[in-house]
Amino acid sequence: MEKIVVGIDGSQTAQQALQWAVTEARLRGARLVVVHTWQQPTAALMSPYAPLLADPATLAQAARQTLTDSLAAADLSELACEPEQLLVEGPAAPALVSAARDSSLLVVGSRGRGGFAGLLLGSVSRQVAHDAAVPVVIIPASATTVEEHSSERNG
User: What is the pTM of this model?
Assistant: First the structure.
């Protein structure tokens, strides 16, 4: 069975990427793997209050909630199987590239929660496009709706 990997970060663009990947998984009868990464903020680690600011258990729980909330907000009906959820501690781009190594497709949003909103591509989507060994789909913030995507595929 084909596998489609999608990266999410809780942003609106990532939610659009998730819904696009769900639609594509439906059309292909593919498995869907939803990946969310988390890491301790560098600034917090340099602080003498690091144990209070960057508690790994709290960060992991917040990441798990982001993954849960993103899936709850998506229309997951008619998928061939339940989406696999993958929560990874570490940088996003390497985790996504690794998760997609044996997949048919890797899907990400063009911009996530990073700092420079005016850029067309965020650092993760840019690095994924450069490093992935599989086809990459980058969903822009102004992505078409799922219905438009579906009708384009059907004819």
Answer: 0.81
